[in-house]
Backbone:
């Protein structure tokens, strides 16, 4: 009875059929990147704003003031009395009523008493020059409420974390394509509700749910792609992330053309409904069907794949076996019970956490450093394309470990240098920061590959799922770390990023090199791998592709 890998080799490991499915599912990477990085534009600074004095709206209407006139009457006296205040987070503690003069509303306080007028903290009475440009102005996420913007991104990442476990389990139990289609539907519906959320609480609830379903789309599309290609086609795991980068590059163009946050939210959410058409063109994973004892359906799909690839399956292929069976109910203890498994697990968890935290931190930092946000964001995305090319060129020549370590160390050093470069040399500061973004992007993409190569077949799916969950934990912490530390000193987050990245680079050197080594089948195989070269130094024969992001 032939194994699935043997049948796939005869049907074509990466023929016309797989290339079509691969291209279609890669589009999910674009929409997922929209969701991943959208906070930079959804939560961009709303421009000028000030705190309105109670009664000012009625008086402004009675006096026929334009907004600029009202601002002058509100903010200028405040500046006279308190030169450090610009009227954004505090106001004069006075009330304007019908007795107030339109020409000089503060006249009855006297010219010399303005500096002695009491001040009050502003809570919910802000006026914005561009009131619907971002969620910041829509939900008053300014001053003492500024941390709520951090919360919105943390909630999204919490959704990613939840989706990784819940929909990952569902995809194992109910099928890849079913969960993919349901996730696309949920992502689109939740995205629409987010765009029309009546208050910030509803916004957060459905942004969390959009994160859950968004992670489901990205995770399952990655798994489907890797499960229908041959074991030697590892390149698909890197190439699919190039489409994520393309989304990062496209996003600023969409944000530039659509000035309101609601319009942008709809633009990045509605494409998910188009993916529902994949029901007719993307089949269920035959590898998954075999694990669920549905060999006839799997064989029918394999015949269809062979037909589209111009191949022909032998008639004696009436049944297929699965060579890689997963153990039931693996636990965290299985990953740390033996010395080298424990070392690999802890280092990989830290690498996932660090890569996600620094990557998201550098992406969101573009929204607070000034300059041309749209152009800077596009350039920072474009620099990720060389990262994928460098990985493809180096991993099969130099290996995994050295590029993994160097990319982290380069990212850390670049962040440190950027923090201390003077502001009057913007081109140099941008160039060095771009090198940091290139380095952490390479590290982020390599960890996907290395993680699956360092676990035995029986624990690979569970090990990758557990370690990559630290990616979402890093994403939850990133906005708080960035925005709160930047409030102390704009470059302080870069110092933290540099320390984390350099430590990660040094730890990665303790991992075994997996270039040219067959994937470990058992825990004993992992224990035989050394930091220099493993005893399993055979040419790679296969790769388990049931690994989640």
Residues:
């Amino acid at each position: 009875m032939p194994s699935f890998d043997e049948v796939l080799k005869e049907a074509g490991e990466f023929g016309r059929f797989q290339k079509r499915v691969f291209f279609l599912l890669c589009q999910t990477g674009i929409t997922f990147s929209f969701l991943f990085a959208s906070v930079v534009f959804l939560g961009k600074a709303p421009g000028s704003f000030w705190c309105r004095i109670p009664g000012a709206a009625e008086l402004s209407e009675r006096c026929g003031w334009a907004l600029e006139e009202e601002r002058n009457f509100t903010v200028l006296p405040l500046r006279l009395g308190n030169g450090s205040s610009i009227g954004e987070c505090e106001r004069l503690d006075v009330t304007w009523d019908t007795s107030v003069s339109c020409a000089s509303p503060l006249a009855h306080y006297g010219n010399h008493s303005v500096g002695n007028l009491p001040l009050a903290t502003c809570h919910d009475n802000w006026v914005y020059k561009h009131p619907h440009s971002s969620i910041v102005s829509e939900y008053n996420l300014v001053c003492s409420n500024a941390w709520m913007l951090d919360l919105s991104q943390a909630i999204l990442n919490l959704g990613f974390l939840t989706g990784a476990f819940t929909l990952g389990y569902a995809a194992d139990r109910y099928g890849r394509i079913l969960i993919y289609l349901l996730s696309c539907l949920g992502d689109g519906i939740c995205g629409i509700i987010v765009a029309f959320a009546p208050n910030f609480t509803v916004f957060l609830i459905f942004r969390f749910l959009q994160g859950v379903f968004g992670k489901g789309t990205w995770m399952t599309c990655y798994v489907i792609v890797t499960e229908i290609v041959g074991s030697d086609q590892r390149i698909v795991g890197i190439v699919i992330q190039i489409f994520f980068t393309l989304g990062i590059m496209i996003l600023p163009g969409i944000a530039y053309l659509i000035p309101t946050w609601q319009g942008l939210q709809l633009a990045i959410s509605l494409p998910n409904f188009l993916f529902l058409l994949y029901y007719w063109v993307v089949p269920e994973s035959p590898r998954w069907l075999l694990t669920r004892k549905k060999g006839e359906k799997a064989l029918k799909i394999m015949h269809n794949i062979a037909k589209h690839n111009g191949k022909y399956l032998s008639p004696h292929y009436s049944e297929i076996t699965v060579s890689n069976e997963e153990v039931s109910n693996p636990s965290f203890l299985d990953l740390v019970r033996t010395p080298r498994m424990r070392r690999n697990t802890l280092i990989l968890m830290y690498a996932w956490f660090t890569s996600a935290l620094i990557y998201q931190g550098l992406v969101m930092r573009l929204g607070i450093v000034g300059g041309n946000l749209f152009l800077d964001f596009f350039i920072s995305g474009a620099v990720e394309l060389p990262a994928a090319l460098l990985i493809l060129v180096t991993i099969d020549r130099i290996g995994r470990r050295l590029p993994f370590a160097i990319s982290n160390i380069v990212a850390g050093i670049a962040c440190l240098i950027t923090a201390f470069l003077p502001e009057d040399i913007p081109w140099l500061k941008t160039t060095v920061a771009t090198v940091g973004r290139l380095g952490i992007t390479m590290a982020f993409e390599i960890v996907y590959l290395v993680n699956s190569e360092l676990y035995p077949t029986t624990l690979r799916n569970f090990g990758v799922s557990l370690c990559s969950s630290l990616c979402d934990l890093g994403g939850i912490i990133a906005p708080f770390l960035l925005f709160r530390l930047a409030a102390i000193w704009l470059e302080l987050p870069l110092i933290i990023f540099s320390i984390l990245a350099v430590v990660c680079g040094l730890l990665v050197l303790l991992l075994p090199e997996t270039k040219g080594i067959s994937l470990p089948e058992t825990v004993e195989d992992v224990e035989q791998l050394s930091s220099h070269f493993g005893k399993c130094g055979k040419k790679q024969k296969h790769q388990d592709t049931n690994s989640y992001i």
Observations:
- The chain has three domains: 1-45+144-315, 49-129, 332-530.
